[in-house]
Amino acid sequence: MEAIHFGDPVRPLFGLHHSARGAARQTAVLLCHGWGPEYMRAYRGMQTLATALAEQGFECLRFDYSGTGDSEGHALDALLDYWLADINVAARELMDRSGASRIALVGHRSGALLAAEACRRGLDAAGLLALDAPASGADFIADMRRVGEAEDYRKNRYRSHGNELPETEADELCGHAWPAKLASSLVSLPGVSHQNLRWLQSKDQRTAIPAGTPVWTLDYPSHWHNPAWINSPWCPTPALRRLAAECVTWLS
Amino acid sequence: MAQLKEYALRFGEQQRLLGILTMPAQHRAELPTIIIPNTGIEHRVGPNRLHVQLARALAAAGFATLRFDLGGLGDSDPSPGRAADSSQDLRDAANMLLARSLGPRFVMIGLCSGAHDVHQFSKNSALVMGALFIDGYTFPTSRFKRRRFFQRLMRLHWKAAEQLPEFFGNANHPMPELLPAFFSEPKQSEVAADFTAMLARGTHLAFLFTGDVESEYNYAEQHFDAFPMLKNRAEVWYQPATDHTLTRRKSREGLIRLIRDWVARLKT
Predict the structure, then answer these.
(1) For residue B11, what are the β-bridge partners?
(2) Hey, how many other C-beta atoms are within 10 angstroms of the C-beta on A242?
(3) In terms of Cα–Cα distance, which of A207, A2, A211, A216 is closest to A109?
(4) What confidence tens digit (pLDDT) does each residue in B95-109 have?
(5) Secondary structure letter of residue B60 according to DSSP
(6) What are the CB-based long-range contacts (under 8 Å, 24+) for B72-76?
(7) Spatial separation of the C-alpha atoms in residues B65 and B107, rounded to whole Å
């Protein structure tokens, strides 16, 4: 695994390139993280998944959108268009580094919405795997608001009078910057669609999946809607290794 | 962050650890280098990206800053065949920085489990000139217990029958789900001995406690009462309206200013 900065030198993105073990397959895999607390919860899981995919012969790249994680930029400057451009830049970087002839996308939660939107706007991807994707941008935002409010309630419940947390600012959500322009564009994102779509659904998720989409069910709850799990890891390693093995059949 | 430069570095045995070094536009060798390990299971960016913002703010003030993942967390691998050892990981980080002439003095900053990791490393290391612990080890005092009783009494009213169990039991502890369970707290006497040793070495100590640990820490002077050797020799800040993961931007910005100013005072 190689840590890299790439893209515009003024606003470089941070990424991690996982080289394929043995002969690389023709398809490389770009992993698109989710946002906010879900990004934090799933970070190690996405690393594990990328490692497992690399062991199966896939060149992989994970990266942080501009203004998030280790990438450059201020979170309050984040825009949907920037993030979609970031996916395209990362896809090119992965193609250049791997020599693969095509790429597939793996999107986690809101990352699946972004990956699907990037494809709608012209990114050529051989397939898209949605990991517990929300039904739409509006649904994702509603989920985050509920989690944020429940987390605040939980924290304030144990505080003495006068020590309550201050109100959340209009441009923050679940502790993360939430600029108005980003919010207004994310809310209009439609559900995930792709001509070669696969779906991983945790057993506690009830998202309506597009008809005819092959679904892999995870035998574990993910608790995306439960604030008590906001700081807990996402998914056991064996399940992610099984998922990587399924991807071999899917992308061959 | 115009003019700041960030470098992704692998280091430690078999290059198993990964961190991001943020360098100021012009590095001054007389300043200490800052090291920030993980908080809980969260990777090196920290809760709500705190460590990224903190590293960039400190670099803007002239301090080279490393934020990195301990073995088994984020993008770092555990040491093969050995149990997790955060002190070894911090030692590897310091050695890597020394090899890059980014030393010989370090300031360690840790939040939650990171504070415990910083404590365990700093108690034995002469390389550490300053250590800041955010929601680190706490110990009750008699004044804490009195205040705790009345705080719980005040919260109990007829509309909140659901809170009866927590008044009589230990269910009002908000932290079990917030704090990882993978550390064991040392005895108060051991921590006191550690502080004494660190102060004797000239290590600057600072502590910050947030409102999320109200069930463990509930008045500003509690740490001085629990550890009298710290009086007039350490900074203690109590911010009851701040939460453990710094979910409010104003809290994060305030904390970053506080840390930056404290570190700047150390250099003199």
Answers:
(1) B17
(2) 15
(3) A207
(4) 999 999 998 999 999
(5) H
(6) B73/A44, B73/B38, B73/B41, B73/B43, B74/A43, B74/A44, B74/A47, B74/B18, B74/B38, B74/B42, B74/B43, B74/B44, B75/A1, B75/A3, B75/A16, B75/A47, B75/B18, B75/B43, B75/B44, B76/B12, B76/B16, B76/B17, B76/B18
(7) 9
- Put simply, the answer to whether B45 touches A72 (Cβ < 8 Å) is no
A207: distance to nearest CA of chain B, Å? Answer: 26
Structure tokens at B180: 């990882």
| DSSP bridge pairs for A113 | none
pTM, rounded to two decimals: 0.93
Query: d(Cα B19, Cα B49) in Å, to the nearest integer?
Result: 15
Helix and strand counts by DSSP (H, E) for chain A: 6, 10
User: Is B240 in contact with A233 (Cβ distance < 8 A)?
Assistant: no
The verdict on A153 touching B (C-beta cutoff 8 Å) is: no
- Rounded to two decimals, the ipTM of the complex is 0.94
Select the residue of B42, B52, B218 nearest A70 (Cβ to Cβ): B52
With an 8 Å Cβ cutoff, are B248 and A231 in contact?
A: no
CA distance A182 to A202: 27
- 83-142 of A, contacting B, C-beta below 8 A: none
Q: Does A236 touch chain B (CB under 8 A)?
A: no
> CA nearest B39 in A: which residue?
A231
Rounded Cα gap, residues A228 and A150, in angstroms: 9
Residues of chain A in contact with residue B250, where contact means CB-CB under 8 angstroms, are 166, 169
Report how far residue B97's alpha carbon sits from residue B17's, in angstroms, rounded to the nearest whole number. Answer: 13
| Interchain proximity A177–B41, CB inside 8 Å | no
The amino acid at residue B238 is Y
Q: Name the residue facing B214 among A1, A163, A233 (closest C-beta).
A: A163
| B255 Cα distance to chain centroid | 12
Report the sign of the C-alpha dihedral through residues B77, A36, A62, A220, in that order. Answer: positive
At A228, the amino acid letter reads A
- What would the two tokens of residue A111 be? 């990352």
Tell me: the pLDDT tens digits for B243-265?
Answer: 999 999 999 999 999 999 999 99
